[in-house]
Amino acid sequence: MPPLLTKCYLLRQTFGMSKFVSNHKIIHLRYLSTESKTSSENGFVMQKRKPPSFKQFVKWGIGGGILVAVGSFFVNVFVQDYRSQKDPKHYYSDWKLRLYTSLPLAGVSRSFGYVSRLTVPTFLREPIFGAFARAYDCRIDEAIEKDLRAYPNFAAFFNRPLLPSARPISDISLVSPADGIVLHYGEVVGRRIEYVKGHDYEVTDFLGPSVPEVRPGNLLYQVVIYLAPGDYHAFHSPVNWHVSEKVHHPGFLLSVRPAVLDWVPKLFCLNERVVLSGQWRHGFFSMSAVAATNVGDIYIDLEKNEKPVIKTETHEVLAVDKVFTKGSKVGEFRLGSTIVLIFEAPEHVKFAVRAGDQLRYGQSMIVKEV
Question: What is its EC number (predicted)?
């Protein structure tokens, strides 16, 4: 008899085929019942578990926050919004621009502004502020207070008062409003501002709706000054003038570094900014403080003179009645940013500055009086 048949015969003789099959079913049923019992016991144990600990809540909160942030980021990348309305030509077609402008720079910048106002322990002030001063070449010798321990926080350090002898105010009627580098200057042609070729925009897109027509014999000019992190961060009045309007434009907090300005179209129209407008000896004059990454905190000394006029989704207009004298402090940034001057002046005005020049506030910006 073949071996296989022999084994089957022995199994049948020993257990019986029906008994073998039934035993197999019993074993299988026992396994299922044991598994069910174990599952029910586990379920009973789960019901008896303690409430989640504080650490678990923190983990869940962080995880949920990350999911919300990632979801918001991708929504900002793919959904049409303010950027596309301002410049559909670029922000619909260039995914890199949408990706960069969707980064959570506003939240980071607001947090930095909050941290800049926190008091730094006295024993840490000298090493921290000293390291920052060395890294960004800050001129501490120009400050009235040279002891770094006297500055309670970064905001105070950034806007440290300077010696009057360090920034003499020129007798010329138009002076630099801040320490910084001249990025651009010149005539505004056809009421359109152009910083980079092909990235032009209307004056009203940047300043607001109430920009008067230029007087006969005058032209409209612009000067853009970039404040680096190591510069003195307060800004001062460049002329003697009367401010009649303040316009706040909410917006993004994109970097205003020259390389980014060259790449991102209409960046100044996208970023948050505060525009002061009024009159000087030659007509219309405006000074705008443009916020940037890590500069979501702009202070301007006008609160007691403001009266709300109109508020929309894109801007808020406030009536102001304030006279600034040349060289007087107007406001301050918490870190480097940009000041933009747009003003009326005679058509024969000659600038004493060039793109790339390093300025100090109070320095003359025109060759001779006009």
Answer: 4.1.1.65
Active site residues: 179, 236, 337
Instruction: Answer whether 191's CB lies under 8 Å from 206's CB.
Output: no
Surface-to-core class of residue 142, CB atoms within 10 Å of its CB (0-12 exposed, 13-18 middle, 19+ buried):
middle
Beta strand ranges found along the chain (DSSP E) = 180-187, 192-193, 201-202, 218-226, 234-236, 241-249, 273-280, 283-290, 299-300, 306-311, 316-324, 329-332, 338-346, 358-359
Please enumerate in sequence order all residues whose Cβ is within 8 A of that of 274, keeping only pairs 6 or more positions apart, or say none: 246, 247, 248, 249, 288, 289, 298, 300, 331
Contacts of 170 (CB under 8 A, 6+ apart): 362, 363, 364
- The predicted model scores a pTM of 0.73
| Residue 263 and residue 198 in contact, taking contact as beta carbons nearer than 8 Å | no
- Read off the pLDDT of residues 48-91 as tens digits, 9 standing for 90 and up: 566 667 666 666 666 666 666 566 655 566 665 655 666 665 55
| 268 neighbors 340 (Cβ within 8 angstroms) | yes
Look up residue 215 and give its DSSP letter. P
312, amino acid identity = T
E strand map for 85-207: 180-187, 192-193, 201-202
